[in-house]
Amino acid sequence: MLAVIASVLLLVPTARTQQTDTTLWAHLRYRFVGPEGNRAVAVAGEPGNPLVAYVGAASGGIWKTEDGGVHWRAVFDSQPAQAIGAIAMAPSAHNVLWAGTGETFFIRSTTALGNGVYRSTDAGRSWQRSGLDSTGRIARVVIHPANPDVVLVCALGRAYGPQPQRGVYRTVDGGRTWTRVLFVDPHTGCSDLAIDPGDPNTLFAGMWQFEVKTWHLQSGGPGSGLWVSRDGGATWKRLTGHGLPDASHVVGKIAVAVAPSNPNTVYALIEDQDPTLYRSDDRGATWRVVSRDHTMAERAPYYVRFAVAPDDEERLYFVSVRFSMSRDGGRTLARSGYEGGGDNHDIWIDPLNPDRFMVAHDGGASITLNRGRTFMRIVLPIAQMYHVYADTRAPYYVYGNRQDGSSYRMPSRSLADGISEGAWQHVGGCESGFGIPDTVDNATVWSGCYDGGLEVYDARTGNARNVRVWPEAGYGWRPADLKYRWNWTFPIMISPHDHRRVYVGSQYLHVTTDGGASWKVVSPDLTRNDTSHQQSSGGVTTDNLMTFDGATLFALAESPVHAGVIWAGSNDGLVHVTRDGGTTWTDLTGNVPKLAPWGKISNIEPSRFDVGTAYISVDVHELDDLDPYIFKTADFGGSWKRISEGLPRSPLGFVHVVREDPARRGMLFAGTESGVYVTFDDGGHWAPLQTNLPHAPISWITVQPHFHDLVVATYGRGIWILDDISPLEAPDFPALTGGAMLFKPRPAYRFRSQQGIASAPNSAVRVDSVPEGADLTYFVPASLADTAAMPDSAHPRRPAKIVVLGASGDTVRVLEGERKPGLNRVWWDLRYTRPTVPKLRTPPPGKPFVRTGPDGTRPLVSWDLDLSLHGPLVPPGGYQVRLTVGDSAASAATLTQPLTVLKDPNTAASDSDVAAQTRLALAIRAAQDSAARMINRLEWVRKQLADLSGQLRGDTALAGDSSAKRLAGLADSLDRHASAVEGALFDVHLTGAREDAFRSPMQLYGRLAALQSDVSESGADFAPTTQQQAVYELLTRRLGDASARFAALMEPELRAFGAELRKAPLKDVISAIDYPSPARPGP
Q1: Of 404, 478, 771, 894, whose CB is crowded by the most CB atoms within 10 A?
Q2: What is the separation of C-alpha 613 from the centre of its chain, rounded to a whole number of angstroms?
Q3: What pLDDT was estimated at residue 415?
Q4: Is 504 in contact with 469 (CB distance < 8 Å)?
Q5: Would you give the distance in Å from CA 585 to the centre of its chain?
C-alpha cells in the first residue's frame, strides 16, 4: 500500500523547484548484503613494513590493511571513480600514494572506466583529484625514487576510439600540471612503464594499439611497440630491431621490467601470435628472445604482466591465468604451488624483502611472506554483479550473477546474528548474465551463463537442470558461424502474467512453457544482422568467448499491464515491440530521436501504469559517447522523448539501467557508471540518490514492492539495499517546505530469530542486516532541526519524541530521534519498554578490589541476564505512532500515523499462541522489574550505610564517642540484614564476570531472567509450556516472600535506625525510600 503523509501536517505545499534538494534524504543509508567479491587488479605495499598494504579493485575502490592483512578498510569510497588501474607508493615518502583510475585488463565490455589520477599525502586517509580526467584508463604510475612530486603516468585511453589523451604523461610539481611526453597516435596508449631504480632518468614504456567496440576487441597494430627514455621521460625513442620485432611486424600488448639487482638487465613480454619474452643485458641496446610460452599470457589483453625479483635478475614471476615463475631468466617456467585465485593481473614485490610479495587476481588478492611457498588469500566485498532480482517471500531473498562466480541467492536480512558468508547460496548458472527467481513458487531460479548457458535451479532439492536453447558449444567460433548468437549477458525474462512462460534472447526471441524442455522461436532476427560485426575478436590473437559478439539481443521486457506486449532491444541499437506475443513485430528504432547507430539498448522498462508506456536506456560509451541516454514512449513506441538531459554529463555518466517505481507514477531510478539517480517528475529533473553508496558502476536496480526496498546491484561493490523508500513514494515528495511531518510506516513483521550460519572470523566482507522492527520516518524542516541557531544556547533543542501507543491508547514505548534537517529514521524493535536495570553500588563480600564505574555503579552480570534486558515483543495488531518535534508546548508539532504489526509468516504459532506468550513475558517482565527496583533500593541503602560506618569509624573526633561506636555497630547490623535480603534476590558474590554464576547458586532475579529468555527469546513463537507457567508461579511466590522481607527491613528497621541517627548529633544520611509493594506482580 502506498505510504501517505500524515493528515496532521504543518505544511503548505509549494510548486516543485527546479533543483531537487538532496539533503532531504541525506541521512538515509544503504546497507551491503553481499556477496563476497572478486576482481582486484592492482597491489602495492609499504617497503619493509609487512603490516601495511593496498589493494585496488577492478571497479570497487582501494582497500588498506595496517595489520598484515587481517583487517581491511575501504579508503577511496568518497571518490566518483572506483575502477583502479594502478597504485604506487612514493619510495622516498611512504605517506604519498598515487592512484590511476580505469582498468586496463580488458576482455569484456563491462571493464570499468576511470576519470584520471588521484594523490594522497596522508597514507590514503584522504585523496585529491590530480588531473588527466579524460585518460580513461591508467595502467601504471611510476614515482621518482627521490622526489614524490615527479611522477609518470601510463595512460591507455578510454579505448573506444581515437583520442589524443593517450600515452605517457609527466608531472614535476605533484600533479598541478602535466605534460604529455610520449604520444604515438590517437589509437595507441600505454600498457606498461618501468623505471631504472638506480638511474631514474632511464625509463621503458610499452605502447599498445588497442580499441574496443560492442562487437569487437582489437589488440595490436602498428602503434604497438617498446620505447625508451634516457632523460627522465622528456624524450623517447622507439626500440626496433636489434633483436626486437621491426616496425612492420604487428604486435599487441607489452609489459616491461628492469631488474633491480642488475639494471643492465631488462625484460619485455610482448603479445604476438605466441607470447614472447625478450631480454636485454645492455640496458635495452640489444635484445634476444628468451622463450615463447602461452602460460606467460594466455589471453593477452587480460594479462601480460610480470615482475623481476629485487635480489635476483634471473627470478621472474608471471601473472596470467596461472601464477608461474622462472629461476633461469624466463627460459623455463615452473608452476608454483600458489592456487589462491585464478586469472592473476598484478604483482608487487617488497624491494627490501623479496620474500614478501602480493598478487592481485580475480578472487581478490594474496600475500606471501615466504617467497610464494604459502599465501594468505584476501577476500574483499568487491563483487561485480550483473543484475539483481528479489523474490516475494518475507523476508525476501535477492538474486544475481557475479563475475568470476555464479548465480547467487542471499537473504535481504538476517533472522540470526547478521548475514554470514554461508548464507550466500549458489543457484546454478555461472558468472555472467541473470539469476531470476520464479516469484510464484520462490523456489525455482532461472540462471544464465555465457554461450547461451541456461539452468533451472530447484531450491527445494538443490539440483539444477541444464535447459539451454541450443546446446552446441560455440567457444572459439565466429558469431557469424553459429546458429544462435548469444550475448555474454543474454536476456532472460519470466512473464509477469504466466510464470510458466519464460523467454530468452539470442538474435531471436525464444519461449518455453514446459520448464525449458523445449523452446520455440517467436520472432525474426531482431538485430541489424551486420555480418561485419560477427567476425572473430581479439586482434593479434583470436579471442572468441561471446564477450564481443555483435548483433545480439541485450534487453527484453513484457508489459506488466497487458500480456503479450513484449519489448526487445539489441546491442547494435534496434528496438522492437510485439503486441501479440510475437506473431508480429514493429521496428521502432527510427522513431527514437537522435538514437546513435550501434548503441546498446541496455535496459527496457515497460510501465506498470500504462500499457503503451515504456522507458529505454541506451549505452553508447563503447562508441566513445559517454552521455546519458534515457527515452520514454507513451504510444507503444510510435514516438519517443529523451528524458535524461538532467543527468550529469561526465566520463562516468552513461546509463546502464532505468527502473520505474512500482508505487508512484513518474518516479524513476537510473543507474549510471558512477551512481544512482532519482526523478519524481518522469525525467524532468534528476537528483543523486547516493548517500553512503560507493560510486561503483550501477548495473541493475530492482524495487521490492511489498517492502518498498530499493535493491541495487553494483559492478564492483556487490548488492546494496536502501530500506523502505515509501516516504519518497509519497505523492507530494519532495515538495517539503513547511513544518514537520510523519510518514505512514510500512507494516512491520514481528520476525523471530533463527539459527544462523557462522561467519568467518576477521572477514573483510562485513554484511549489514536491517534492524528488526518498524522503521519510523519523519521530516524535520531546517527551522526545527538541531543544527538551527537557538535564541538561548543555555536551552539546547530537545530530541524528537516518538511514542508508540497500543490499541487502547496505552503507552507501549517511548523513543527519541534525531532532528537533522530532512528525512530522519528511527527503528522501533517492536518491543515494550525494558525492565528496570539493576545497578550495584557495593562490592561483593570480601572483594574490595571490585570497583564501581564513574557513575558509582557496577552492572549485575548473571548468566542469561544479558538475554532479557530488553522488553518483550509486542503482539501483532494495530498501533499508533505519535511524533512530537519542538522545544516548547507552544511550538511543538505533534503528528500521528497508524502502524500495523504482522506476525512472523515463518512461524506456525496461532494468534492465540502469540497472545499467551506475550502475556507471560509481560508478567515475567513485571516480576523482573519489581526485583530490580528492590535491588536498586537495597544497594542505595547499603552504600549509605557503608559510607556512614566508615565516617563514624574514621573520624578521629569521634574516636572516643560511645554513641558513634554504637551507631556504627547498628549500621553494620542493618547492612548485614540488607545483604541477607539482597541475597534472596541475586547472588551477592557476583564480581561482574559472567561465569561467576557457576560458583554459587543463582537466585531469584537471575532465575526470572533465565525464564524470560526461555519464554520470549529462545526461538520462534510458541504458547508457553505448562512447566514454564509452573516455574513462573513458583518464582512469583518467592518474589512475594522477598517483597515481604524487603518491606519489613525498610519500614521498622530502617525507620528505627533513622530515629537513632536523629537522636545523635549526626546528620541523617539515609534517604527516604520508596519501595515496591509486596503484592504479587502481574502483567
Answers
A1: 404
A2: 33
A3: 73
A4: yes
A5: 41
- Here the cell at position 411 is 537473504
Asked if 686 and 644 touch (Cβ cutoff 8 Å), the reply is yes
Judge whether residue 754 has pLDDT over 80: no
Q: Where residue 342 falls among pLDDT bands split at 50, 70, 90?
A: confident
Find out whether 604 and 592 touch, Cβ atoms under 8 Å.
no
Can you identify the CATH homologous superfamily of domain 127-378? Answer: YVTN repeat-like/Quinoprotein amine dehydrogenase (2.130.10.10)
Question: Virtual CA dihedral for 734, 735, 740, 741, nearest 10 degrees?
Answer: -60
1042-1073 pLDDT tens trace: 999 999 998 888 888 888 877 775 554 444 33
pLDDT range class, residue 1080, cuts 50, 70, 90: very low
Burial class (CB in 10 A: 0-12, 13-18, 19+), 569: buried
Q: Taking Cα atoms as reference points, which of 127, 5, 109 lies closest to residue 56?
A: 127
Do residues 155 and 168 make contact, with C-beta atoms less than 8 angstroms apart? yes
> What type of residue sits at position 790?
M
Which pTM was predicted? 0.93
Among 87, 101, 175, 20, smallest CA distance to 695 is for 101
Rounded Cα gap, residues 1011 and 1007, in angstroms: 6
Dump the DSSP string for 293-355: -GGG-SSGGG---EEE-TT-TT-EEEESSSEEEESSTTSS-EE-S--S-SSEEEEEE-TT-TT
Measure the CA–CA gap between 64 and 51, rounded to whole angstroms. 10
Using 50, 70 and 90 to split pLDDT, how confident is the model at 6?
Answer: very low
Q: How far is CA 217 from CA 306, 321, 473, 877, in A?
A: 23, 19, 21, 61
Four-point Cα dihedral 48, 50, 54, 55, nearest 10: 120
**Strand, helix or coil for residue 384:** strand
Partners of 304 in beta bridges: none
Which residue matches cell numbers 524470560? 1012
DSSP string, 958-1007: GTT-HHHHHHHHHHHHHHHHHHHHHHHHS-TT--S-GGGGGTS---HHHH
Residue 944, pLDDT above cutoff 60 = yes
DSSP 8-state class, residue 396:
-
Let me know: does 745 contact 758? Beta carbons within 8 Å: no
Q: What is the pLDDT of residues 862-883, one digit of tens each?
A: 776 665 578 999 999 999 999 9
Question: For residue 538, which of 266, 302, 227, 184 has the smallest C-alpha distance?
Answer: 302
pLDDT over 70 percentage in the chain = 93
Q: How confident is the model at residue 661 (pLDDT cuts 50, 70, 90)?
A: very high
State the Cα torsion 333-339-343-344 to the nearest 10°.
-70
DSSP 458-489: ETTTTEEEE--SS----TT--GGGSSS---TT
C-alpha 827/C-alpha 99 separation (Å) is 39
Mean pLDDT computed over 165-180: 99
Residue 185: strand, helix, or coil: coil
**In the chain, ranges of CATH 2.130.10.10 domains:** 127-378
DSSP, collapsed to helix, strand or coil, labels residue 409 as strand
Dihedrals phi, psi of 727, to nearest 5 degrees: -60, -35
pLDDT tens sequence across 16-40: 334 788 999 999 999 999 999 999 9
Q: What is the pLDDT of residue 956?
A: 64
Supply the DSSP symbol for 831: B
- If DSSP codes are grouped into helix, strand and coil, which group holds residue 697? coil
Q: Residues 550, 534: contact at Cβ < 8 Å?
A: yes
The DSSP-derived string for 878-914 is EEEEEEEE-SSTTT-EEEEEEEEEEE-TT----HHHH
Burial 272-307 (b: 16+ CB within 10 A, else e): beebbbbbbbebbeebeebbebeebbbbbbbbbbbb
